[in-house]
Amino acid sequence: MTFEDLRQKLTSGEVSAKEIVQEKINRINELDPTLNTFLSVNSQSALDQAEQIDNQRASGADLPPLAGIPIAIKDNLCTKGIKTTCASKILGNFVPPYESTVTERLKKAGAIMIGKTNMDEFAMGSSTETSAFGPTLNPWDINKVPGGSSGGSAASVAAGLCFGSLGSDTGGSIRQPASFCGVVGMKPTYGRVSRWGLIAFASSLDQVGPFATNVSDAAEILQIISGKDDFDSTTVDIPVPNYIDYLSKPIKGMKIGLIDNCFEHEGLSSEVKKTVLKSALVLESLGAEIVNLSCPRFNDGIATYYVIAPSEASANLARYDGVKYGFRFNEAQSLIDMTSKSRALGFGSEVKRRILIGTYALSAGYVDAYYKKAQQVRTLIRNDFEEAFKKVDILLTPTSPTTAFGAGENVDNPIAMYLSDLLTIPANLAGLPAISLPCGFDKSGLPIGLQLISNVFDEASLLQVASQFEIAAEVSKKRPKTDFTY
Ligand code: GLN
Question: Can you give the residue ranges of every domain in the chain?
Fold first, then answer.
């Protein structure tokens, strides 16, 4: 069911918002003890909110677009009065005194916040296994990871525990789990969506974006959260197009670029490659022109990102010192002892690894060799994209080199884990919008994701091509069987 289908059922009175919310709560109670997609569920407040909407509808009031639609929120987005942990022990009891702009906008649009979703600690990871509160499992196969870091937001949509969700994407954390869980996930242009109230990981890369079962719902969420915000000076004051208008537009004559060096990578699974190349043919059959091109620096993204992101993280995470808020080690002998033990016990090992790498890369004597060099390569990657967008409208790559990998398979191998973001990271480094949508399945029935990237602030074309593909290819209608035994 799309938002539009649901809206019609709600307007006609076929179903009430309260019934919808109750159905989702029942499903969460049934499936989430296994999947662990939620860190907290706001059952009572969601039911109250739904009842309020039902009453407003009964009194004939004009309702906002998402009225009565249950949406889940990644647990790194601050929600006033509701625990926001970032899946970290250090924020285990943090209750924000303010609301993030994106959740505020969704609330105003009538969406019902059903709960906060599990994630890799501080959004660092690609499997949702670094959460301090246990891993999330993939609803397509519970022996596989859901991807990460927004694994809870992706898996909860895939398992039908909510209608849509918000995640954050610093290097692929929306698109890669969307790909692993067979749902649509989108990272907007840097500056399109406010980061106010998003707990910072790497501020020059972080963006909030939607997950949904289909492109049109993702477009609706994006519509609501986009636009200038006075609380975030990096948001850009340019008009937000009506995205829904673009979804039905034909793509005849549009130029789609296949980045050839993405398809030559040794880690790329042959099934993923075959399925994604077949998707290009679907777009061609719709009248798009396929152009082969190179982005020579594309594969340097990963090395660049793993200097820049940890550097920014090491600065951003300096605030967790046991003094102002968050976890504090209480038996300390001195201030230094208190701060270092609070951090040592409060952070998990992946977060500490990033802080160490970042602190090293920023230290005097190394900053030019690592951080500055990485920023220079970042510019070269961006230049590659600028050249590419002189020739084509949209770029096409797989989202991830493989389908969902096994739980525990990469936990002790950070490099293998980092490589799963090979194809998503360049868009973050260049600030470009990108979407992942289902394009097929591998032999074991796991979803494969197609990534489309567009030029800055051209989310409209991205959604247009994605929507036309979705209609023509008809893959996204398949849902996971959630009859797993537990
Ligand atoms: N997996 C990448 C990392 O670990 C990206 C994370 C993200 O986008 N938040 O840094």
Answer: 3-247+434-477
